[in-house]
Amino acid sequence: RCVLKELESLGKALYGAKLIAQRFQLRNCSHHKDPVSGSACLLSMIEEGNPHHFFIATQDQDLANKVKKKAGIPLLFIIQNTMVLDKPSPKSLAFVQKLQMNQLVPEHQKESIVQLKEKEGLAKQEGAKRRKRKRAGGPNPLSCLKKKKKKTQEGQEPSAEKKKRRKRKRNR
After folding, report:
1. pTM surpassing 0.85?
2. Strand order in the sheet with 82-85
3. What angle do CA 151, 152, 157 make, to 5 degrees?
4. C-alpha angle 77/80/81, rounded to 5°?
5. Is there a contact between 41 and 62 (Cβ–Cβ < 8 Å)?
6. What ranges do the domains of the chain cover?
7. Model pLDDT for residues 89-133, shown as the tens digit of each residue
């Protein structure tokens, strides 16, 4: 409601924006009798962790920067007649990561797991890492195949100029 009041007060220049804003569902804010600016009203509605899961759509850079400082609030803006959903802010990403870690294992259970591991002697020992030894393998099976004799044309014998191939002995 505060945004609509602000659009009315700005006059005919923003009449189209006022018509678009009127199409959307209105949320009741705590500023019924004394409306505040639109950005202040939007910030007050998302103040306590955004319980209604609002998206903020704005072209105002000051409002966008204030919204980015809060975790879990999606931000929309317009670039060349296209609505764009802004990438999550670093604050939102850190909040989600912290939330996921806490959901997997509660803090008191983490502490009890560490204590039980120490009691049983299963704690990680840094100096006890062993390397796995590589064992010598046999020869490549493809290299052990017998050579195929080349077919020669009938009536011709292989030329004497061809050198005999000597077999190499492998040292093992």
Report:
1. no
2. 56-57, 75-79, 82-85
3. 135
4. 75
5. no
6. 1-36, 50-108
7. 888 888 888 877 777 677 777 788 888 888 887 766 555 566 778
